[in-house]
Amino acid sequence: MRKANIFVLLATLLLLIFNCSSPTKDYLNESEDAKSERMAWWDDAKFGMFIHWGLYAVPAGEYKGEKVSGIGEWIMNSLEIPISEYEQFAREFNPVKFDAEEWVSIAKEAGMNYIIITAKHHDGFCLWDSDYTEWDIMGATPFGRDILKELADACENAGIRLGFYYSIMDWYHPYAQGIFEPKYNQWANDERSNPNFELYIENYMKPQLKELLTNYGDIGVLWFDGEWIPDYTSEMGKDIYNYLRNIKPDLIVNNRVDKGRQGMDGMNKEGDFAGDFGTPEKQIPATGIPGEKWESCLTMNDTWGYKHFDHNWKSSKTLIHDLIDIASKGGNLLLNVGPTAEGLIPAPSIERLKAMGQWLEVNGEAIYGVDPSPVDRPEWGRYTVKDNRIYSHVFDWPADGKLSLQGITDIKRAWLLSDSSRSSVPITDNTAGISLQLPLIAPDTVATVIVLERK
Ligand code: H79
After folding, report:
1. Segment 379-389 mean pLDDT
2. Residue 184: what pLDDT?
3. What is the pLDDT of residue 141?
């Protein structure tokens, strides 16, 4: 009996010691191999959907007769709307046409493999049922449905990875603001700081992030933003990164968790930690970002959050070329939609996504899972590579059908990717590379892919 008691005591002690010493693991010095393995799905995915949705969809870019000239989700800041007035948008937010499965099927049909949605943008409003605030979909709106839960379920059913955008800058939380309403935090100000900012991180941001990582299924990515506010430090970023990966070891986190980013070009200061991938915003780096994983986030018009008067849509052709360009430089494309306050993705966005999906249906092999171009980009288009195949994406079809491929050698056979019979395209070798004799008419006026099989 006594022996048994001692055993139980020892076992308890051991457990205690184990528990106390089961330390938080440090993920900052992960090996390149481990990182590659963790990010393999993301690397191969290449194309994702960014969703900017929140209360700013209610004013839709216009308040009291004034139209914002800039991006719609900044309306609270740009038009200096006091919190008490902005709260009215929550009372009006009732997106009865929201259908998570419809959104996910639009993404899927577009050929997208993951979705990142604004769980919380700069206005601090939370699209999920958070225990840490009433400034959320359940506490502040008549809608009463957990948007992230519905989206998480729809994504799981469709086999689409889900990630959350989370703004560190917060114009609503009293401990997060360095400059108070109605000015809010401006871009890169260093004038004031909030003495309680640490409490915002420890008692609000971290528990909220834990909710997001534990209550919504298998979350692939956390996408931070608003890290430029003066109260936020690189040390906080490193601590949060480790906090998150200790909760979910295979999580992928963007560079804005840290302060290492330089402007909007996605580059990080050398030697800095700066998360798992760079985030060039509204731009595509001229030659990619050597030695870094990256993802360009782009809009289809000029705004992220819905603006009823922004009709400056890019063409489907431009967007498909952007996707190819990004893939040829080793990046991903995160392409934005800004749904309306009713819960609908705008028709012009759907139209463009459909066109992209149709192009990818035929040419996806030359985009998903590819490596970047082996040579400088040619005048007529772009290259991507996978296994023993080089894909040439022809944007500008040669009038005489004769295409010159500088620096490409040792090619066994060539054919059009869209040609199921794989008829050979004649190849001639020359000193600087090869030439192809193509049909005189471009099979696809947007971009035609020719497969080049290496010897
Ligand atoms: O979520 C999207 C943007 O809201 C956020 N990042 C993407 C993904 C972001 N992009 N840029 N910025 C934040 C900085 C914003 C600068 C400006 Fe402005 C906002 C320029 C015009 C409006 C603030 C208000 C600075 C000048 C006026």
Report:
1. 98
2. 81
3. 98
**Residue range 206-233: mean pLDDT, rounded:** 96
Cα of 325 from ligand 1 centre, angstroms: 25
As a whole number, the mean pLDDT across the chain is 93
**What's the gap in Å between 80 CA and the centre of ligand 1?**
14
187 lines ligand 1 (CB under 6 A): yes
Domain 381-454 of CATH type 1.10.10.10: no
Please state the domain extents for the chain.
2-12+30-366, 381-454
Q: Would you say the CB of residue 142 lies under 6 angstroms from ligand 1?
A: no
Of 135, 145, 44, the C-alpha closest to 90 is: 135
Confidence band for 259, pLDDT divided at 50, 70 and 90: confident
Cβ of 263 below 6 Å from ligand 1: no
Query: What kind of fold does domain 2-12+30-366 have according to CATH?
Result: TIM Barrel (3.20.20)
Ligand 1 binding pocket includes 227 (Cβ within 6 Å): no
Q: Ligand 1 atom 26: the closest Cα is on which residue?
A: 187
* pLDDT tens digits along 184-203: 877 655 666 899 999 999 99
- Are residues 414 and 436 in contact, defined by beta-carbon separation less than 8 angstroms? yes
Question: Using a 6 Å cutoff on CB, does residue 310 contact ligand 1?
Answer: no
Judge whether residue 22 has pLDDT over 80.
no
Q: Read off the amino acid at residue 289.
A: I
